[in-house]
Design brief:
six-stranded mixed sheet, 9 helices, 31% helix
Length: 294
């Protein structure tokens, strides 16, 4: 299959907000955690210091809720999670209520499922925080291992599409997802939100659904203006997140388009970039790790 070069632009850089900041919205994979999926001590300490100072910390991830929740709990977070690229906002405490959900329209989900079938691509559908695929493949196994989830093999996916899925993900071989995302955006870009969340993951949500729109909704609910929000990310799917914040930070391993819109470039995730950024931007918060990352 010959696919076009992707054109998935991020917004340009805006003047930074001066602070003080009351919220940190942060991506998970590639930002808070590396490929080892470990929350490093300096990052834990920085987040704990923010929470103790009353700063709200919100995870904004493409992961399923069940996959993101263990990280939120390990960090002691109590604010709702932004999951599925912004398609779901759900509480992480108490009854774990769903606050907002924006599923994919059925006609669009069916069309993309047929596209994946026609090109023999590995596709996952998501309903009620469970993942489904037509058949087990190495690509599906890679995704499941990275996200620490089970993916249910069901054969034909089309019969599942009697109701709207939360999102769709096509998983490719190494570095293959950008071309797939471009093909999806070229064909369905007026109906869907298509983002690259990983070199192997092209993700589809409903039009207008993104981490940034979810952050704006949640911040409005919490009464926090944009000027008091810091956002940190690493991949193309974090562009809207950084655009929705008053101060945008890209970690050192971030995609070039994200660095181009950031006010601050932090060290990479392997060098505790989030902890470094927190030290720079929340200087009045006590209990912050000092000096170089450990």
């Amino acid at each position: 299959m010959t696919l076009p070069t992707p054109v998935l632009p991020c917004p340009g850089r805006r003047p930074p907000a001066p602070g003080p900041f009351r919220m940190l919205a942060v991506d998970l994979d590639g930002t808070l955690i590396g490929t080892d999926l470990v929350l490093r001590p300096a990052v834990r300490q920085a987040i704990r210091a923010l929470l103790e100072a009353g700063v709200r910390v919100v995870l904004a991830t493409g992961r399923m809720y069940c996959s993101a929740r263990p990280f939120a709990q390990a960090l002691g977070l109590s604010d709702p999670l932004i999951c599925y690229q912004g398609a779901l906002i759900r509480e992480v405490t108490g009854a774990e209520r769903v606050l907002r959900e924006r599923p994919v329209p059925l006609a669009l989900a069916r069309a993309i499922t047929r596209f994946a079938q026609a090109h023999d691509l590995t596709l996952h559908l998501y309903f009620d925080d469970r993942a489904y695929t037509a058949r087990a493949t190495p690509n599906s196994a890679y995704y499941a291992a990275l996200n620490r989830i089970a993916v249910e093999e069901v054969g034909d996916l089309l019969p599942l599409l009697r109701r709207r899925p939360t999102k769709l993900v096509i998983i490719s071989g190494p570095e293959g997802a950008a071309a797939i995302a471009a093909a999806l955006a070229e064909r369905w870009g007026q109906q869907a939100q298509v983002v690259l969340s990983h070199p192997r993951f092209a993700e589809v949500t409903a039009r207008g659904v993104a981490k940034g729109s979810a952050l704006r909704w949640l911040a409005g609910r919490l009464g926090i203006p944009r000027s008091q929000i810091v956002a940190i990310g690493d991949q193309q799917n974090d562009c809207s997140l950084l655009a929705a914040a008053g101060y945008a930070v890209a970690v050192g391993n971030a995609a070039p388009e994200l660095k181009a819109m950031a006010h601050l470039i932090a060290p990479p995730v392997s060098e505790d970039g989030v902890a470094w950024a927190v030290r720079q931007l929340f200087r009045d918060v006590g209990g912050m790790p000092s000096g170089e990352s450990q």
